[in-house]
Structure formats: structure tokens, C-alpha cells
Amino acid sequence: MDNSYLIPANSKKSMLKFGAFTTSDLVIFGCGVGLSFLLMMALPVQNFAMAIIAIIPGLICGFLVIPVPNYHNVRTVIRNAWIFYTTRQKYIWKGWCANNGERDKK
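and the corresponding C-alpha cells:
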């Protein structure tokens, strides 16, 4: 087979917990769920508004660590968008009409 091989697309999944999460993802999610449990014990959750307030930390943390296509998770998407919009972007044109600062030699 002329010394060529194919690397499987999911080769990095074995390095993740449950095949989708890093340790920091699980810590973030665990802190959010733990805070939600504490709020459920501390707040009167008989009221619908208080129940929603109590589970918001768990929902937000769960949203941040949910896997999305082409990125690791939503937290990665937000970080990449922040870096893109807050840093100076310099794009170097290397298209079909670029001459790299040289004159046409005749």
C-alpha cells in the first residue's frame, strides 16, 4: 500500500472523559450543578421564578460545555470569537493578482 496510512477522525476522543469532555469541562459543569443544588436548598423553590433562578447556574454551565461541530464546545466558540473581535487582524493577500512587491520583468 506504498507506505500510506489513514488516521481515524476520532483519534483525539480517547483523550477526553466520556469521549467528549476535558477535565476543566467537567469541573465547570460540576460547579454549576453543585451551585444549583445549593440554591435549591437555600431558596424557596415552591415559586416558579425562584425555581428557575435556582437552576440557572447548572443550565448555563451545561450550555458552555455542550459539544458543537467543528469546535470542542460552546466555550471554545465564545473564546475564539472573543479573540477574533478583540485582536488586530492582518490579512496578507496572496491571490492570483499579487506580485509580492515585484515589478513585471520584461
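(Above: one complete record from the training split.) DSSP finds three helices and no strands in the chain.
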